[in-house]
Fold:
Amino acid sequence: MEYLVNFKLTISDIKGKSISKELKDSDANPLLGLQIGNETDAAIVGLDGKLKLTGGSDKSGVPMRKDIHGAARKYVLLSKGVGLQAAETGQRVRKLMRGNTVSEEIYQVNCKFDGELPVEAPAKDSTESTEEKTKDKKE
Structure:
């Protein structure tokens, strides 16, 4: 069974740099069914190495949480951790969370790359055109 899915993938490296990639349809299928903490090949985004899933959120912004099994949305009682901003000592809040499994409803997936992300060089055509303009002015 093949779904037409669309993921926004946010990839962070060991240095703290992050990039965002959009995965559509058949490119996104390898992520379906993965759980938070699982690793997958980084070749799906054109990198060499591994991507470790660290979290995500669905189309309405409900965050994924590692300790909720499955892909369903559930109301859970939280005292700390993902999805709860600042609770006082002893305070518990019931919040809507999504499970730890990537499904079609997930919109954003956060990943950690095990290497260093390549630095994207600025477009060469723009630098060449400025050099040509300076040469024209000198002549």
